[in-house]
Specification:
The complex is a heterodimer.
Chain A lengths: L1 H19 L2 H25 L4 H19 L2 H10 L1 H6 L5 H27 L8 H29 L2 H17 L12 H7 L3 H13 L6 H26 L4
Chain B lengths: L1 E12 L2 E13 L4 E5 L6 H8 L7 E6 L2 E2 L4 H7 E4 L11 H11 L4 H14 L15 H12 L6 E5 L7 H16 L3 E6 L2 H7 L2 E6 L2 E6 L1 H7 L3 E7 L3 H9 L4 E6 L3 E6 L2 H14 L4 E7 L3 H9 L14
Parallel strand pairs in B: 3-8, 3-9, 6-7, 7-8
Antiparallel strand pairs in B: 1-2, 1-4, 4-5, 9-10, 11-13, 11-14, 12-13
Helix pairs in contact in B: 3-4, 5-6
Classes of the chains: A mainly alpha, B alpha/beta.
Chain lengths: 248, 320
Amino acid sequence: MKLFRDTWLVFGRQMALMLRNPVWLIVGVMQPLYFLLLFGPLLKPVLGPGNAYKIFVPGLLVQLAMLGTMFVGFALIAELRAGVIERMRVTPISRLALLLGRSGRDVVMLLTQAALLTAVALPFGLTVKLTDLLLAFALLALIALLLSAMSYATALKLRSEDALAPLLQSVSMPVLLLSGIFLPLTFAPAWLQSLAKWNPFSWAVDASRALFAGHPGDPHVWKALLILGCLAVAAAAWAARSFARSVR
Amino acid sequence: MIETRGLRKSFRSRKRSVEAVRGVDLAVDAGEVFGFLGPNGAGKTTTLRMLATLMTPDGGEATVAGVDLRKSPGEVRRRIGYVAQGGGTWDEVTAREELIHQARLYGCNPATARERAAAAIQAFQLDGFADRRCGTYSGGQRRRVDVALGVIHQPKLVFLDEPTTGLDPQSRAHMWDEIGRLRDEGMTVFITTHYLEEADALCDRVAIIDHGEIVAQGTPTELKREIAGDVVTLGIDGSAPQALALLEGEEYVHTVEKTDAGLRLYVDVGATALPQMLRTLDGAGVLLSSIELHRPSLDDVFLAKTGRSLRDTPTDGGDR
């Protein structure tokens, strides 16, 4: 009960801070919007007019979830530097809440952006059942929770933008490319496909595509939800431990 | 209010292990302002952070606000306030918002939190700027908000790490008033400071830490009394070594030290020692540029206990 209250408290503050400067919400969604508007049309001849957006938009949403939440650690470093985190760590607030409140903000922000992107894609001929869409959004929420928790835990360990930036850059690109976000990996050579099998986000993209294609029963869907659910819980536990452990 | 026995903490940097705090014994009574003094790197902040639950001690025992520090840090957190050296406000929010949120972190419901914040704004005279963003405050204003945040839950004990460092004289005087007020309200205040005159004026008792160990503990008056007699400071041009040799052997001189501009001597009674001293120096033809006779200050205590003056030690990067 206390955990819920504390999480709500941290979440409320983070949401209020974000709404004070909502421009970041728009900035985050700009890049996938450009992809949708300026790159999507190129895929039409390749994938067929009816299929293009059904294949492309689910991938874009996963990309948005990944890029939108991977870099949240930077904000935490700024808070660490201002002493805000230390001030809160001396209060009786739950350490897990310090993480969950922040990650909750990240999830809400991402889902807002995802809804925006989906809404823009609809006039291009994207059709999806509401229940399938909601399931896809649940998957996105898990990705956001996983990556924001990992980003926070890494930020707590490194404590410097100069160390965090190159690390995230070098990790994000291969993970992104190996998830088949732009084109399905069915076009890929066998070695690339087997490599991608080890990438949880590749599962997420496949599941997301299955949902947008109207196949919620596809085994990719429950497998992706299970894999990302487990990873998200593990990442949250790790990050919460980092928040609790005393450092310097 | 605080009692520690053999509190220890070491850090690993590269392969070396550095003992930052090696066996600190402290006793702080309820209702006093306790000053924790020491040069940079002596273990002040490390000790403070251990007592405030931000760091786990490697060894030793501590009771803070009536609770065992190692067994129940959560309960200690409920009972203490802590204000870090660098503060902890966020530029984008107002002092009122921070105060309300802080009260909520300590478990207040929204209505109580708003009342507490309003009361704190009045008590710490933040009215003029409490509804402006923290990013716009002056150093002194920000520091007052920091302290107000640290005591929003009305703890019995509050830790203030260098509360006046970097403040202009007026803001510093203001901060002294606030600390005095907290004590008058019955709070125990544990402060670290660089300024010995501040410790002298403000603290009921002080402890001096050096190289991770307590080298002196008591009221400022007691500590000064330990340094018997008076202090004579002589300004000497050029022939200081000669003067040192002349005065070292004199029976009325307890100790004599070389300073930048001359000598500092500890004597029993300044009024009788001074004429003798002048005769000796005059006879040897040593010319003086200045003479000063004063009662020992905490600076002298510090010098006697640690072998160096606090003023000489360079300030670290944590200072603003």
